[in-house]
Amino acid sequence: MIETPDIVRPSKELIDGLEHIGSATAAGELNRLGIRDAHIRGPISWNHGKSVVGPALTLQFMPKREDRYSVDEYADPERQLHRHALYHTQPGDIIVVDARGDMGSGVFGEMMLTYFKGRGGIAAVIDGCIRDYPKAQSLDLGLWLRGTTPNFHTQTNLMPFAVNVPIACSNVLVMPGDIIVADDDGVVVVPIKLAPELLKRASEHRDWEEFSHLKLSAGGDLRKYYPLNEEARAEYEVWRQSRQH
Q: What is the pLDDT of residues 155-202, one digit of tens each?
């Protein structure tokens, strides 16, 4: 019997707070916290308008070698580790897959993604492809992908290899349970230990950017209001205090 580890999930309060910051703010603030580049390049949004935040279930694929993996699409399904990754799904989870950028393997199809959605999963980030895209799109999941293919997961070059282990998704380290922030700008990985400080900094950043946006939309001076100079900072503090009463 195959057994795979689960992840440790962050608090609901942390996830709820990070839902308001967006990938651009997350990437910028993580840079200031010492993470030079947390952006997973390659997978882009295939279900535009979706914005998600949640913990990462991880799935690692490796190059297929027939002596290690000869299972076809439906034979002996419990040997197929991509199924076991989804067995761990809890509401709010995001599945993140290192599929090696391969464009000929459909990591998941409609049925697997339907199960994932039914268990409460909210998004898939795949350095590779899915199949059954027209039907998968109707599930209203967040989908960040390199592309689509009609092939099933082990038809060509890949085999699922490990579940909830550290992975290199598009050459970016993702640890099981890291927080994913994804929207139409892209996908950002938030190291779980940095998440509370990111939330604090990003909340402050969001507030002053809201003030800046109001001023710039009214014709305010870019040199004064983005970023805030000392004079504008004083105006911002008055504005911020007024919103708390």
A: 899 999 999 999 999 999 999 999 999 999 999 999 999 999 999 998
Which CATH number goes with the domain that contains 127?
3.50.30.40
Co-location of 137 and 206 in the same domain: no
Percent of the chain residues topping a pLDDT of 90: 78
Alpha helices in the chain (DSSP H): 12-18, 22-32, 81-87, 110-118, 133-137, 195-217, 222-225, 230-243
Last residue of a domain, one of 174, 190, 206: 190
Q: If we measure between CA atoms, which residue out of 148, 171, 206, 147 comes closest to residue 39?
A: 171
User: Are residues 115 and 51 part of one domain?
Assistant: yes
Which of 179, 108, 177, 182 has its CA nearest to residue 142?
182
**161-197 b/e with 16+ CB inside 10 Å = b?**
bbbbeebebbebebbbbbbbbbbebbbbbbbbebbee
Q: Which domain holds residue 203?
A: 197-243
Mark whether 211 and 173 lie in a shared domain: no
Give the model confidence (pLDDT) of 68-116 as tens digits: 876 665 566 677 899 999 999 999 999 999 999 999 999 999 999 999 9
The DSSP annotation for 94-154 comes to: EEEEE-TT-SS-BS--HHHHHHHHHTT--EEEESSEES-HHHHHTTT-EEEESEE-SS-TT
Looking at the fold, whether 55 and 30 belong to one and the same domain comes out as yes
